[in-house]
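[Archive record]
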Amino acid sequence: MSTVNPFQLDRKLRFVILAPHVDDEVIGCWRLLNSGLVVGVAYFYEVDTVRGMEATRCADDFDFQIIEAHYIDQEMERVKANALLVPNIADYHPHHKAVNRLADSLEYRKYYYSVDMNVEMDVLSEEHQAQKQRQLLTLFPSQRRLIESTDKYHLFESLLSTDWVDMRVNSSDTRKQSIVSVKPL
């Protein structure tokens, strides 16, 4: 399984990103946001006043609409989207796993992104790493300490056409076994 180049995707695709937290959309889908194919983002957790303002700034910067997470089907129609960007089940955070499980019930074409360095990924060029880091720091000042604490948020991106748990892996792989064991809510 190889990563998907966002700039080689069908230009008829219009994506909504399912973002567990404000900033996951940029950490996981920065290149796709820059491609102009993202028309909406649904945020699920921890959207207080400060993070809401950061989400609005991000929507303005990348020209997408913030959509209501509780009405994905209606919102997909409203923003004329036909595909979803879903957090990969291999991401460590339980909120990412919960949003991934929610997406299982949605009948749209799906691609899977990751904010962790635990699936196949593309390392960004040094120029793109610098651009992405600057944009993260500008858009999400409340997360400055986190963004500056590790390079993983700007070093790479992973966009897969298959969810990690669906890929053929060795059955003795304990990561797969532990992920499968947490799949049910």
Q: What stands out?
A: The CA atoms of residues 147 and 153 lie 7 Å apart. The first helix runs from residue 24 to 35. Helices lie at 24-35, 49-62, 72-78, 94-103, 126-139, 144-149, 152-155, 174-182.
